[in-house]
Design brief:
The chain contains 1 helix and no strands. By secondary structure, the protein is an all-alpha fold. The radius of gyration is 20 Å and the shape is rod-shaped. The termini are far apart. 0% of the residues are buried.
Length: 45
């Protein structure tokens, strides 16, 4: 295996990790938005 193969494999791993992290952040943001909306509904009461 030559060096270019390992470089491309490492690059793919980095981008997959970055995409997974962004998906995690998007899920957390959506959960917070839903929680805030529920809190606002209950505050109007």
């Amino acid at each position: 295996m030559d060096t270019l193969y390992w470089l491309l494999a490492a690059n793919a791993v980095v981008w997959i990790g970055f995409g997974a992290y962004l998906a995690f952040l998007a899920g957390r943001e959506r959960a917070l938005a839903l929680r805030l909306a529920r809190w606002e509904r209950s505050a109007r009461g």
